[in-house]
Amino acid sequence: MSFNSLGTLFTVTSFGESHGEAIGAVIDGCPANMVIDFEAIQHQLNRRRPGQSGISTSRNEPDEFKIISGIFEGKTTGAPITIIIENKEARSADYENIKKFYRPSHADFVYDKKYGHYDYRGGGRSSARTTAPMVAAGAIAMQILAIKNISICSYVSAIGAIALMKNFDELNLSQIDASSVRCPDIPTALLMENYIYDLKAKGDTVGGVVKCVVRGVPVGLGEPLFEKLNANLAKAMFSINAVRGVAFGDGFESAQSLGSIQNDVFEKIGAEWHTKTNHSGGIQGGISNGMDIHFEVAFKPVATLMQPQTTADKNGDQQVLEASGRHDTCVVPRAVPIVEAYAAIIILNQLLIQRASKEFAS
Amino acid sequence: MSFNSLGTLFTVTSFGESHGEAIGAVIDGCPANMVIDFEAIQHQLNRRRPGQSGISTSRNEPDEFKIISGIFEGKTTGAPITIIIENKEARSADYENIKKFYRPSHADFVYDKKYGHYDYRGGGRSSARTTAPMVAAGAIAMQILAIKNISICSYVSAIGAIALMKNFDELNLSQIDASSVRCPDIPTALLMENYIYDLKAKGDTVGGVVKCVVRGVPVGLGEPLFEKLNANLAKAMFSINAVRGVAFGDGFESAQSLGSIQNDVFEKIGAEWHTKTNHSGGIQGGISNGMDIHFEVAFKPVATLMQPQTTADKNGDQQVLEASGRHDTCVVPRAVPIVEAYAAIIILNQLLIQRASKEFAS
Amino acid sequence: MSFNSLGTLFTVTSFGESHGEAIGAVIDGCPANMVIDFEAIQHQLNRRRPGQSGISTSRNEPDEFKIISGIFEGKTTGAPITIIIENKEARSADYENIKKFYRPSHADFVYDKKYGHYDYRGGGRSSARTTAPMVAAGAIAMQILAIKNISICSYVSAIGAIALMKNFDELNLSQIDASSVRCPDIPTALLMENYIYDLKAKGDTVGGVVKCVVRGVPVGLGEPLFEKLNANLAKAMFSINAVRGVAFGDGFESAQSLGSIQNDVFEKIGAEWHTKTNHSGGIQGGISNGMDIHFEVAFKPVATLMQPQTTADKNGDQQVLEASGRHDTCVVPRAVPIVEAYAAIIILNQLLIQRASKEFAS
Amino acid sequence: MSFNSLGTLFTVTSFGESHGEAIGAVIDGCPANMVIDFEAIQHQLNRRRPGQSGISTSRNEPDEFKIISGIFEGKTTGAPITIIIENKEARSADYENIKKFYRPSHADFVYDKKYGHYDYRGGGRSSARTTAPMVAAGAIAMQILAIKNISICSYVSAIGAIALMKNFDELNLSQIDASSVRCPDIPTALLMENYIYDLKAKGDTVGGVVKCVVRGVPVGLGEPLFEKLNANLAKAMFSINAVRGVAFGDGFESAQSLGSIQNDVFEKIGAEWHTKTNHSGGIQGGISNGMDIHFEVAFKPVATLMQPQTTADKNGDQQVLEASGRHDTCVVPRAVPIVEAYAAIIILNQLLIQRASKEFAS
Fold this sequence. Notes:
The structure is a homotetramer of 362-residue chains. The first copy, chain A, is α+β, with helices and mostly antiparallel strands. Chain A has one domain (5-361): Chorismate synthase, AroC fold (4-Layer Sandwich), CATH 3.60.150.10. Helices cover 28% and strands 23% of the residues of chain A. Chain A has helices spanning 38-48, 96-100, 108-115, 131-147, 186-202, 229-238, 251-254, 259-262, 332-357, and strands at residues 5-6, 11-16, 22-28, 65-69, 71-72, 75-76, 81-86, 151-159, 162-163, 208-215, 243-248, 266-269, 272-275, 283-284, 287-288, 293-299, 309-312, 318-321. The relative contact order of chain A is 0.18. At the C-D interface, β1, α3, α6, β11 and α7 of C face β1, α3, α6, β11 and α7 of D.
């Protein structure tokens, strides 16, 4: 039950702080003898890294990784895989506000009260920068899932009130990276981009929604009652900074709906079972049913504003917190590869669990 | 990593099937020397049990529990506490449809494909009946939390499109059980009840939302990065049957909102820290901040309809599944004590974890 | 990390006290669709139960089990399997000493100090009676291992200073149950029996050693560095009451020996790899090497004497603790099926873990 | 259940291979706000490192560590602590034998068969070099235990047949490091040293025993039935390379003894409880009883001989494996700080677990 580990058979242990020497992760339980594509890892890191476009923070971290264990002659050995990403562009000048204030809706306050001593620099351990090595680990998981024809992709389905009206199967998912907001519907993407630039000019921030679609998952992943597939995916998503909500299939809309509308009736075409609709999001009773798994992740707006905020400083005195530092107006486009990574880690973990007992006698 | 255990230091292991001899749970890690109030346990079971009102299923299970270990002379001993609830009113006549069909949006299909052999009677292991011993275990957790002045309460905030417009701190939460729908706003409750009776007449079902409020949680519960308080609460909620969405604080609405609106600024009144607003839902960076924790849980409609449905039978032939059995039109009011129980188990677990290392040197 | 659970994928959770209503266990993660032989379970329980021969305690528990979940139509369903064994012959008259004294080398003292409140009747939770449901769970594990041609057998290799001089492969292991001491070498068994009867007459007790041999384990079970096969077997053995030592292969003798003697050199006969000797006990680097796994478990003498002992009572006053109750002179023969059961649980657990990632790409 | 993690609340995750870029460990769950003494860590690493004396291997690794996360301004923050030790003196010339042979009583064979692909250089992941970062992690645990007045010390009690006859409380434990063999009885130490030099001249190796004594452990550590203190200590010890046996208190001798001799009777002196003897090794029923905890760990001889051995090569052909490389004649003296480290990790972990629920109501 390591607090900083995600997964149980395929386990990723995270370490490092935003402005420390390095951040990293140790992958345990990775199947052996797997060829690893290092460029594919860097590709996902590049999609997450700061400074990648005009709408993201100007902190310019290359986020180049190195792997110092667990891979020998290009292939996994079954031993722990250690990923290290150095922190290059840490600016100490940005720390003064953090030393003086518990910044609103940041974790400074709870870290200070919980631990009594914390690394405040750039948010330290609570920074979303800790997701970078998880993205690298998730990229490895995605490669291993690909062997079993399982693919994961995410995109931005809403920024503020600008929401994509089309369902995932109506979209051209190859267009996700065509815009800086990672919304595959280009007209909607343009609206989103403009909206973000407007808010950036005002020093405000905005939330949004990432939709995730997992294809090729066989029937049977997920272990009721308490290692259900949806429950573990949700736990992983809520581990990502700024997440406020997770919903599968029709999600909160299904709560407003009727059974006669929501039920997914079965059909068998040849040897293959399907459901005619997929309101359930590909999971029933906590177990994958072979349909596409799909869910939404809601992100609140970035807490650091480029506007003054009146709040209490660490002494409890009401003061004006002035804007400073380098921050995103909307972090949701950068969250796309993060959602993919965390989903990949969970899916691979549950796949390994399912393999353990499946068809034992045969 | 027992699949049927919830929690890590305070652990509840579930067992039993809907129409087997009994269902039950084993609580491990319960603090010793605690006086247990058995009536309080039965009270929560009564709030969950079928047949309690006109809007719930007519299956009439008394859901009386017995405890066969771990409590000696009325007090916990630190040894595992075993709760047993017998299944009394199991009617085998209701099984024919389940044997013949994979019922739409039920777990029959995935259980059959995953395990190769399953107890189909009344949904077997996938039945929501398995939540009963968890409610008993949660009632014990609630008693122990009460010693630390932590209280948990839930209510129905929406049935279908009928949603409560008031925030939790505007409601009289002592009125939750005043209506059969467990909505503390009586006019809204009446609308909900009427709506449910209408749908019952049509043989249809409807979803809804349960709101949960946890008060008195001290600052510091939750272990980043991967045992965060919100992440574990979400995982627990998604372990409940029919849950499609979980959202903390402003939830999905925060994704549509701006940082300048969503940020919770700090104030210190005397020695006490507060945030002026609570959009975050009492949790920041995965750690409780001392404010009320609040979240919503979305339930899809009950999958069993009292209407015919055209679907494939187990042979793959399209057939009409006729309605039968005893089922709820809307299960959401009965989910209220379930949400409380699962929340209590998680909160107590994280409280124990926090105690382990807190103020170690002192 | 439930304190009362053994195993991680195949998990057995124990509950119950010696003189409570019942003792039992919940098995989680058992492969589905396995036919269970109930008589084989009872057979192992009978080998463990008290009152089975003149050298065991006269407490006469039938130790009949019932299974109330997880098995449907004679086969496992993948859901938790709950085993219940009622306590029948609990005599409250025997409790007076336990209430008054912390009995020497019993757990009364540590339970009282640790928990503040404990069930003292018959040792309560600390009684070796809690091994009974584990034996039943182990009997199920043994049946599942048998499908993969893995067999486990144990025997008594020493009682006091009377030690079996032959190696396990020189013995007729079908003779284990031919004597009440479960030593397969009949002349040695007779010496042991006589020795025990002598000590019984004196009111003293004696320790001994159980040897365990596991055959048919494929190469590759065990996960370094910290889920090694030997490490987990050792942990399980030390979970058994009264165990003081565990040693694999040549054990403590190897510490006195030379590398030139201890090394197990390889040979390949046809397609099969072997080691010419097996000083390692079938495990190298924490991983099974395909040879027979063998280890020894040392049990201290039973702590309850039929002699007076001068010790402190719970007030701290030195007093004479008079003999009472029903107890074994030597518990080691009854430990034979216990060692088998715990070994089976561990081996099956590690087999499931190994299946999860083995030959992933194929 | 990360395979490469030791502990559950205080967790140490190991990574790295003998001849890779670096080895290391991530500590999770370390209490926050603890001042760390870096020299004390290096001291323990120096006691373990190769090349420290004439009886150890000539591989000359400085084993200097760096910590790249989790410590800020000299104090722990509660975030994961990452320890890195670079591999400096890796000589590829020594690999030829390992590529060609499954070396007798090494893990080459099982790694190859289990993983299909492994880092053979210097034994790779199976090398005892992986214990170095664990020693550093253990040194941190020892510092934290010292705050609670718990101390751990180990020494060599036997090399081959040369065994220390004195009990631990008859020895001057400040003399442990006075000899290169780490036996605190100087005359015995001289015998041991001479014996090792004799064997070194012959190219042979020898096993031995490490005794470990833990003082100051309060009553109540250890969680029956399956997280007992002795069981977890034993599991940790068997995780150390070359360990063949573990025994608590009188160990295997107690199996030869009588209850009337072995029982530890109680006495109360003032407010303090003691047992007059300590045959149990400070643990009863799996729980510490407040007396000194003591146990022995048996190490087999080093498997690499400086003698030719006839064995099968990887093709299965019988060949002579010639001696090469740099290896210890007897690794037991270097195991002393390893045993201390692993014991410290377990004791601290169980202390944290005990704190979680202890005196909950107060």
